[in-house]
Design brief:
Number of helices: 1
Number of strands: 6
Structural class: mainly beta
Largest sheet: 4 strands, antiparallel
Mean pLDDT: 78
Shape: globular
Low-confidence stretches: 1-17, 23-27
Radius of gyration: 14 Å
């Protein structure tokens, strides 16, 4: 990707812009939150399709996108308000997908 230096990667998927950096600390490299291949439908509308990202210890991550991109839906899935049709969520290595 031009203009983006390593270890920064920009991921574009389903209207999302997620900026994720490789965890380069000498300390604990485990992720606090792992989102793996999340998908959900509302009737005939595919709200999220194959969304994956992770948050490492001591990282701050933003989730931004246009209206209707699924940001609130993603947060509701992480918090357990909605159950994803596909994918898994891990918090501190424990699966929390319901």
């Amino acid at each position: 990707m031009s203009g983006v230096s390593s270890p920064i990667r920009n991921l574009m998927t389903a209207g999302y812009f997620v900026q994720q950096r490789d965890y380069v600390s000498k300390g604990d490299r485990s992720n606090v939150l792992d989102i793996q291949n999340i998908g959900i439908n509302f009737g005939g509308l595919r709200a999220l399709d194959d969304v994956s990202f992770s948050v490492g210890k001591d990282e701050v991550v933003g989730l931004i996108g246009p209206n209707g991109a699924g940001k609130t839906t993603m947060m509701n899935i992480i918090c357990g308000v909605y159950k994803p049709a596909e994918g898994k969520i891990f918090f501190e290595d424990n699966e929390i997908t319901e």
